Each structure stands twice: as structure tokens, then as C-alpha cells.
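Complex 398.
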Amino acid sequence: MPREVREVVFVDGVRTPFGKAGGMYAETRADDLVIRCIRELVKRNPQLPPERVDEVAIAATTQTGDQGLTIGRTAALLAGLPKTVPGYAIDRMCAGAMTAVTNVAGGIAMGAYDIAVAGGVEHMGRHPMGEGADPNPRILTEKLVDPSALVMGSTAENLHDRLPAITKERTDRFALNSQLKTAKAYADGKLQPDLVPVATRSAELGWGLATVDEAPRETSMEKLATLKTPFRPHGRVTAGNAAGLNDGATAALLADEATARELGLPVAMRMVSFAYAGVEPEIMGYGPIPSTEKALKKAGLTIDDIGLFELNEAFAVQVLALLDHYGIADDDPRVNPWGGAIAIGHPLASSGVRLMTQLARHFAEHPEVRYGINAMCIGIGMGGTVIWENPNWEGFAK
Ligand SMILES: CC(C)(COP(=O)(O)OP(=O)(O)OC[C@H]1O[C@@H](n2cnc3c(N)ncnc32)[C@H](O)[C@@H]1OP(=O)(O)O)[C@@H](O)C(=O)NCCC(=O)NCCS
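Predicted structure with coenzyme A bound:
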């Protein structure tokens, strides 16, 4: 059957404030975090008849307990979407929500869906990284993967070994900048519009309301220099220049562009291309470089066409690896203008949609920019990249 590929647009995205594992969400269920996000999306977009949602794809890296039981379906039901709306669960570790978005985008492009919800949740307090995993020993013996590949912080140390130009001083400065940019973004009211307040409960403290991220902190180069290097004696990766362990959820509305326009839904970004790529698992953080190369090639673009970058800061060293590869300065103002995961946090499977939501906001503020990129590294040696076009750019073809 001949068919046309349809344009996929990002309509809207929201997230919970991100908590520290064991912090403000210690007694809050993981699924309640993502349910809160889906409800908010529906509330913020009253033009959307909820029965028009064709799919709900929700990512979680650990799919047991309150992140189990096909969370996309159960969260959709509990969020009040009609029972006719289906859903499923998805996992690609840190790129879970990114993969949820690109999966539903594929479905939208080929006409299977008109509108879909994609997002992710990770409650790293309730589900520590690697919980219940039983990696096949043959991955180490037959595939000659170094055992350090299974510890993300160790992969970041390995990346430092391979890229000696990226010094600890540079990663600490990048981390400090991330904190400063996030503090400024909060002071300027930039992050708040897409945060969904979450009621929290603590047996000890009673009820509370989470309205801001818990992880950002004041710091300095002097303080950062004194932190321990938990992944290697005399290493370079610290709690200060890595994303922490966090709890949080995100959700986004994706649509066929014609359907969005028919319903009067906002068009915040148009998808141009996406790609995933694999690298040696022991240098996991290198992954976004080949995935970005692939996504640029598919789009017929070069890095010079990209005016804004929202890159996941799992570790400062892996962001700097990408910036060095493309000859972009460590403090280039086009990169993570409101800081990143080092300050805000990185609840694994949820983060991809946070990057997209922020990029959409930057697009609205920068009509002179045509293209923007989201990229992130992914456990077991992968990277993911999505390229978007800015509908506010003057030459945008409707
Ligand atoms: C690095 C890591 C092990 C640190 O965990 P942690 O020890 O629980 O972290 P903490 O927040 O307690 O920080 C450790 C210390 O550094 C301090 N610290 C952290 N960030 C700081 C900063 N920016 N400035 C100053 N001090 C800081 C803390 O106050 C704490 O000090 P203390 O020991 O005196 O209490 C953990 O965050 C981690 O594993 N991160 C990577 C997550 C990951 O792999 N994600 C997937 C990516 S692919």
C-alpha cells in the first residue's frame, strides 16, 4: 500500500520536579509521578479530546514494583485517559523517554497514530541502578566487554583515559557552570512553567508540595576539587561533575502535524531525524558522537546547521567529548543554556523528554535558530540523538 510519511511534531512536554533518591519522593510511588505528568498534559491542552490519544509509551529502566506491570497502560488508566487508549512500557536505560518519543514518532509518521503520549519515570531511590539485573557472564567472556562497562561512573573514568585533553579541571568547570546556569534559569523563571507540582507525603514530616528540583546546589571550583572520586582511587569523576541519583518523571504529547493543526494544538518542534548508535560499552559516554553523526547525515545537515543543543549531562566528561569532537567551546552559550543534569538531576528513563521540553522553550525564545539537537549517552555503550526544526524560524514551511 503506497503511503506518505507524515510530519511528526512535539506539542508539549512537562515533568515533575526531580528529587534526590531518598529525598522528597522517598514515600511517593514512581507511577504516581508519571500519572501526574500525563494528567497535566491533558489539562494544559484542553483542545485535545483524550479519546484521540492513540498510544501511551512510558519508559522505565527497572520494570518491577511500582514501575512494573506495563506502566504505560496502567499510568494511562490512572491518569484518567479513556479505557480505549492503549499503552506500553519501554526500556533503553537513560534514553528510555527519548526512545518512547522516537517509537511513537515512527508510528505517527507511518499513519498508525495521530496523537501519542511518550515519557518516562525513574525512581532511583526505590529502584537502585541495576536492581535485579543478572547480566549474562558471556557478555564479558565472549564479547570481551570490560567489567567496568557495567558501572556507568567507571565508563566515565575510562573516557577520561582515552581523552586526556579533558582534564578534571575542565569537567569541574563545566559542572560549576551547569549549576550556575540552572540557578539563573530558576531566578529568571525559565524552568518553572513546565514543572508539575507533586504532593508528597512523609510519615515523619507530613504532607508537602514538590515545586522545584531538589538536586541543584551552590558550589565552587574549590569545593569541587575536594570531592572524592568514588569510581577509582585518584580518579576524576566525582559527585560534583556527574549527574546524581534522582527520582522523577516526564511526559510529552507528540502528534501528526496536520492533526495538531486541525485540533488547534501548539506545534513546538518538528522532528527532522533521529538515530541511535553503539560504541564499546566501556566508553559508554562516547555514544552520542556516532548517534549525532548518523542523525545529521540522515537529515542532510552538518553540525554548523545546529543553533541550540540540549545534551544530557550524565557526566561532564561525556558532554565535553562531544563538544571537543565538533570543536565547540566548553562554555558555548548554545549548549544547555539553562544548565543540565549535573545540576537538575537525571532520573534515567525520564530525562530524554526533559531535554526536549527545554529545547522547545529555547526555540520559542530563539526564532533566529532553525535546528536544535537533543543527545544523550546510554548504558551498555550507546548514544541517541534527535534533531528538531524550530516552527518559530521565519522560513519554516507549514
Ligand atoms: C557519583 C555518585 C556515586 C555520588 O553519590 P553520593 O556519594 O550518594 O553523592 P552525594 O550527593 O552524597 O555527594 C557526595 C558528597 O559530595 C558532596 N557534593 C556533591 N555534589 C557537590 C557539589 N556540586 N559541590 C560540593 N559538594 C558536592 C556532597 O555534599 C557529599 O558530601 P558528604 O560526603 O560530605 O556528605 C552518584 O551520584 C552516581 O553514581 N552518579 C552517577 C549516576 C549514573 O551513573 N547515572 C547514569 C548515567 S549513564
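The longest strand covers residues 246-256.
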